[in-house]
């Protein structure tokens, strides 16, 4: 095998047909909506000034290239391994759920408590249940909060829960935690 | 000289120096952890840099970009796993050296070659700056449009074997950039009457979803691997002496890195491939390549480290990013109202030279850091995948949520994370989506501006640079079409069982042919004999 073919990325076979077909379907649906979702201006100075021009170029490229890809695929009927691969794409939905729960709870409970809860909870879920890993997860959460909110001052608002803290602590928690 | 002194003045601030130190050390550490990579780190840190001065924010990001490949060579050499994607070729010669107990020699060679590549490219850039300052103002709207179009075409054609998918994903990126209110007539495009889509889809949110969250999901669903780091002997300085014995290989590799870095959409892979193959062709021992050749290691590491500095050229001179990392950096410029492009070289040359000098200092800092901390960095390769996934997931939240504290942004990022996960599982490229988003936006604005001055189509390319770019685009399209037609094979759609039976029949048929051929020869010989005898 030559170096070039060795380094060339190869698309995985399993699941490809489902992905390409779904992506092509989405592209065709979007292209069919172009008249309703974009405006056509009668007195535009040039074709490039038409609001519809670039969406048409983009969707046209998507439909044509995906249709060509589908046409030249060696296998166009899904098999069992394709569906198995598609099921694997759903595996991270659970972690997306953890992420979204974190997002919705931070404004209520606070960046530091939620980060500690997420780091330790997720580590526990992943099987890192020893004291060492729990401590490492908690240290990572604490370090992240102190670095980003405490030192770099990124915009993460204080939580509703912090309002219940005593006066001296409240300002500090809202500012740094 | 005045510009040089002004640039030093820009850099001589404690926050810039701290940013350099943090960027370089952080970049090396990130590179040394397989599964993270500079794209994830830059995506996460991007929103945090918006509150910094442009020079400070860009120095941190440049530090990570420029130094991650140094760190990426450590796992590539010691455990045969590239730390960053561009260290893939380093494994070819680095790991066989480790197997021969020459790990420290390989690491030392990689550091010295990377250092040479980095310094070489910065020197080239400083030498090229006056030329760029003269050429950049010649780029008007139509030239920038054509350069962006060239970038799009190169991004697609660079994905050999996946060109159609790359084209579709680039189209998807361009489509994403059009969603929301269009800037001239303020009509809505593909908002489906949803108010949250009116402001468009934020590039950083997509970047964080596609790079950071998808990587977190990938790591979280992986199995942990047991990694054994082999013992390595020798001095980490010996590589510098050995590099001095191969000046030609190092110079050619670094030159490939500089040239390929400057071309939008091409990047480290092509630079590495070209430098590696040319080094093998020129070597006295080409058979050693792939089996622990020091020349091979020098060629791949010098080439990939010469790219980051060169990749800044199209970004700074034309405002056109050549790959995903510079596309992310472009947003830092926009946030601070610093518009990269021809004007930057005329009005803020000190800023440009300061960035080059920062890259120069960065390379020195990284090598010094690596010489004293390689032993410690090796331990980073042993962080379990899923624990690392948890860390990336949490950091991704900081990145997305800190943009505008929007749960909708987080939802969009999560959706793109799942989409990126499927793309990564299928081994499809993600970079075309990001470049499509950035270059699509540039092409739309510049084409509209250019068309105002165009009466007949020929007017579009009546200036020398526009004509040259047009010719290059036509040549690339023609050569790609020619190669596609030449290599075209009708897809074989038979089932594996059918294919196997056809192969078997062919083999048998071959035997029969040979059998009959032999029989014919025997008969002919007999006939000849008969004839002789008669």
Automatic annotation (TrEMBL), chain A:
Transmembrane segments: 17-41, 53-74, 95-124, 130-148
Pfam families documented for this protein: TctB
UniProt domain DUF1468: residue ranges: 19-157
UniProt keyword annotations, A-Z: Membrane, Transmembrane, Transmembrane helix
Record-linked InterPro entries: DUF1468 (IPR009936)
Domain of life: Bacteria
Protein name: Tripartite tricarboxylate transporter TctB family protein
Source organism of this protein record: Sagittula salina
Organism taxonomic ancestry: Bacteria, Pseudomonadati, Pseudomonadota, Alphaproteobacteria, Rhodobacterales
UniProtKB/TrEMBL annotation, chain B:
Segments crossing the lipid bilayer: 12-33, 109-133, 139-156, 163-181, 201-221, 315-335, 355-378, 390-420, 426-444, 465-485
InterPro entries documented for this protein: DUF112_TM
Record-annotated DUF112 domain positions: 17-435
Keyword Transmembrane: yes
Pfam families, per the entry: TctA (PF01970)
Keywords associated with the record: Membrane, Transmembrane, Transmembrane helix
Transmembrane in keyword set: yes
PANTHER family associated with the record: TRICARBOXYLIC TRANSPORT PROTEIN (PTHR35342)
Name of this chain's protein: Tripartite tricarboxylate transporter permease
Native organism: Sagittula salina
């Amino acid at each position: 095998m030559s170096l070039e073919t060795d380094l060339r990325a190869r698309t995985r076979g399993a699941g490809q047909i489902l992905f390409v077909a779904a992506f092509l379907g989405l592209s065709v649906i979007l292209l069919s909506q172009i008249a309703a979702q974009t405006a056509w201006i009668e007195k535009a100075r040039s074709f490039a000034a038409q609001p519809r021009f670039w969406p048409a170029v983009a969707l046209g490229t998507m439909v044509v290239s995906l249709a060509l890809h589908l046409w030249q695929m060696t296998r166009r009927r899904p098999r069992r391994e394709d569906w198995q691969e598609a099921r694997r794409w759903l595996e991270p939905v659970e972690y997306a759920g953890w992420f979204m729960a974190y997002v919705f709870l931070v404004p209520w409970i606070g960046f530091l408590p939620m980060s500690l809860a997420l780091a330790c909870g997720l580590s526990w879920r992943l099987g890192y249940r020893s004291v060492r890993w729990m401590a490492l997860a908690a240290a990572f959460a604490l370090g992240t909060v102190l670095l980003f909110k405490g030192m770099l001052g990124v915009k993460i608002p204080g939580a509703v829960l912090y309002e219940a803290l005593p006066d001296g602590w409240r300002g500090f928690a809202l500012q740094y935690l | 000289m005045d510009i040089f002194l002004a640039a030093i003045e820009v850099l001589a601030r404690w926050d810039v120096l701290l940013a350099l130190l943090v960027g370089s050390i952080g970049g090396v550490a990130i590179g040394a952890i397989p599964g993270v990579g500079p794209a994830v780190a830059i995506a996460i840190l991007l929103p945090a840099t918006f509150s910094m001065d442009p020079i400070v924010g860009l120095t941190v990001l440049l530090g990570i970009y420029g130094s991650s490949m140094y760190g990426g060579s450590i796992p590539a050499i010691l455990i045969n796993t590239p730390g960053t994607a561009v260290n893939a070729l380093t494994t070819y010669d680095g790991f066989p050296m480790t197997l021969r107990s020459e790990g420290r020699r390989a690491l030392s060679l990689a550091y010295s070659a990377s250092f040479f590549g980095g310094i070489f490219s910065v020197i080239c850039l400083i030498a090229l700056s006056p030329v760029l300052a003269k050429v950049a103002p010649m780029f008007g709207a139509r030239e920038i449009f054509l350069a962006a179009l060239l970038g799009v075409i190169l991004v697609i054609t660079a994905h050999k074997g996946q060109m159609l998918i790359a084209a579709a994903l680039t189209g998807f990126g361009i489509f994403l950039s059009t969603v929301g209110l269009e800037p001239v007539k303020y009509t809505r495009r593909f908002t489906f009457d949803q108010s949250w889509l009116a402001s468009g889809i934020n590039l950083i949110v997509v970047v964080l979803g596609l790079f950071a969250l998808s990587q977190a999901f990938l790591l979280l669903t992986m199995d942990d691997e047991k990694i054994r780091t082999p013992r390595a002997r020798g001095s980490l300085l010996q590589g510098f002496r050995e590099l001095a014995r191969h000046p030609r290989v190092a110079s050619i590799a670094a030159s490939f890195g500089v040239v390929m870095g400057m071309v939008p959409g091409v990047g480290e892979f092509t630079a590495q491939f070209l430098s590696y193959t040319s080094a093998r062709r020129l070597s006295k021992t080409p058979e050693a390549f792939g089996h622990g050749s020091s020349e091979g290691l020098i060629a791949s590491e010098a080439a990939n480290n010469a790219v980051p500095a060169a990749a800044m050229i199209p970004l700074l001179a034309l405002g056109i990013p050549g790959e995903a990392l510079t596309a992310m950096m472009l947003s830092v410029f926009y946030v601070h109202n610093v518009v990269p492009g021809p004007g930057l070289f005329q009005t803020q040359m000190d800023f440009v030279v300061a960035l080059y000098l920062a890259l120069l200092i960065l390379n020195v800092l990284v090598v010094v850091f690596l010489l004293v901390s390689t032993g410690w960095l090796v331990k980073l390769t042993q962080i379990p995948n899923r624990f690392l996934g948890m860390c990336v997931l949490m950091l991704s939240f900081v990145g997305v949520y800190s943009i505008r504290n929007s749960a909708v942004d987080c939802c969009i990022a999560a959706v793109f994370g799942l989409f990126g996960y499927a793309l990564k599982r299928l081994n499809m490229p993600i970079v075309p989506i990001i470049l499509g988003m950035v270059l699509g936006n540039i092409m739309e604005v510049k084409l509209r501006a250019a068309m105002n001055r165009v009466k007949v189509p020929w007017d579009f390319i009546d200036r020398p640079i526009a004509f040259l770019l047009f010719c290059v685009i036509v040549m690339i399209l023609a050569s790609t079409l020619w190669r596609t037609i030449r290599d075209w094979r009708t897809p074989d759609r038979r089932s594996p069982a059918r294919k196997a039976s056809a192969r078997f029949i062919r083999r048998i048929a071959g035997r029969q042919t040979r059998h009959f051929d032999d029989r014919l020869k025997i008969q002919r010989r007999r006939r000849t004999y008969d004839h002789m005898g008669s």
